[in-house]
Amino acid sequence: MESRIILPLDNLPWNQARDIITRTSGRVWGYKIRRAVLDRGLGVLADIRPYGRVMLDFKLYDIPSAMTESLRQHLSAGADITTVHCTAGYDPAAEGLSGDKLAGVTVLTSIGPEHFSRYYRGASIAAMVAGMAREAASRYGYLVCSARELRGIDDIPIKKICPGIRPAWYTRGDDQQRTATPADAIRAGAHLLVIGRPLLEAGDIRDALARTNQEIASALQPGSESPPATPAAVS
Fold first, then answer.
1. What's the CATH code of the domain at 85?
2. Which of 5-19, 58-72, 220-234 has the weakest average pLDDT?
3. Is the dihedral of CA 63, 68, 73, 77 positive or negative?
4. What is the pLDDT of residues 162-195, one digit of tens each?
5. Given 32, 59, 101, 159, which residue is catalytic?
6. Active site residue 159
7. How many domains does the chain have?
8. Is residue 150 in a domain?
9. What is this structure's pTM?
């Protein structure tokens, strides 16, 4: 089974990110990056591609001409996925671009109901994500959303990428508000899972990946149930 895990290396300097990439190649779908590009430019994508796919995560939000300029560079550099905010209303077809490799970002998983109500008026998180998903399906190849909102958009034909995923064996709390286990996300319709801290903080990242990939594989089996949470040592 090919892994469905996207390993986020957004905040790591290139030397550290490169070490993790070489140790985890073949165990993940690919890598989500940002700082590596700031450190070394878009040419760094060519250094990563031999080891796995690349999701470039700058969450673009600007006027259409500025977004098009950036997106053309991202795609030319070899990004397999690059992100834009759904609320930017960007229509790639109108700008002469294919949207197949674009991912529309909905409501960040760090935002809880109270934070949401201060900045988004007249809708629940679920309702807003559903509206964004319907529009994104005609424009982009991917949608980025919390697994909590998947049940309301499972019939919308777009690949779903879910951040804020926490394996059943991971017991630490952090700043993510709307989280889910890999198994729950997969059963709800997620295609790819962004899993960071549980893997990056593990004492043995390869072992943590093996356990998490198995958790995902089990969830893909018909009639599967959520696995029990068994804590693992983290450093």
1. 3.20.20.70
2. 220-234
3. positive
4. 998 999 888 776 555 677 999 999 999 999 999 9
5. 59
6. no
7. 1
8. yes
9. 0.88
